[in-house]
Amino acid sequence: MSPLLDIQNVIYGYPVPTRPHENSPSIPVLRDLSLQIQEGEYIVLLGHNGSGKSTLARLCNALLLPDRGHVLVDGHDTRDAAQVRTIRDCVGMVFQNPDNQLIATVVEDDVAWSLAVRGWPRAMIKERVEAAMAAVGISHLRDLPPSKLSGGQRQRVALAGILALRPRCIITDEATSMLDPLSRQEITALLHQLHQEQKLTLIQITHLLEEAALAQRVIVMEQGQVILDGPPATIFRDLDLLRDLKLEIPEPLLLAERLRRAGVPLSSRAITLSAIAEELAP
Ligand SMILES: Nc1ncnc2c1ncn2[C@@H]1O[C@H](COP(=O)(O)OP(=O)(O)OP(=O)(O)O)[C@@H](O)[C@H]1O
Ligand SMILES: [Mg+2]
Q1: CATH architecture of the region 5-231
Q2: Keyword Cell membrane: yes or no (predicted)?
């Protein structure tokens, strides 16, 4: 099966605007990065500040184009200008600050916005908007202005606007980082649910290790390269390596580490509080 996202030996550096006439190539922030993502995967992409996560995300829906190498989305090269619309319809992005994605004066119109600008038939817009609002649990907020909503609710509106386009893949870039801990957990749980129910390919970018426990595959970036790639239980096995990568170790992993040191035999799957509890008192 060919991958939905196929990133082949990508090198990318931001142009240096202050020195446009000098022949000084920018320092690459992605360095010969290759990565294949299959349809339906649920991936958490980790890495500390500046490791290149957002840059990689922007390359995946043709907001940026690689200096070298290729990014193929469902077989379409992002360099092919004729395919940009198809690529952006396939890969939706949700960003850190929902306010940058909210445009209309009431929730329902906001969710409909991208479909309306594409000139779709009214009945089809209505059907998709209803489904998207229901999927993220905001149908009851439809007539409210987004400014009256909480941060978590606004992020749900932004997510519904993307879902209405029926993408095959959603990349969330630190989409929970401006939220309080409860909303953060709720949005993470919602993304998990959308992946399961709608078979969406999901790439959740975060610097919070705790959000990785639900994923099927965890990818860790460092200095523009992928340095770890595997299931969460495998990635979480070497906490000292994660510490070296300046990732904050979540409480359940610290607890499991202490219990193991005290002689309690926990398996590598004990990465959440409920999994630890299950092994201690089944
Ligand atoms: N628009 C830009 N112009 C120039 N340099 C940039 C730009 N955006 C990012 N960079 C640089 O590229 C590198 C990678 O940045 P990127 O935003 O992809 O990292 P990140 O892993 O998403 O970091 P964070 O966790 O802070 O979001 C950093 O050194 C950053 O300073
Ligand atoms: Mg970023």
Answers
A1: 3-Layer(aba) Sandwich (3.40)
A2: yes
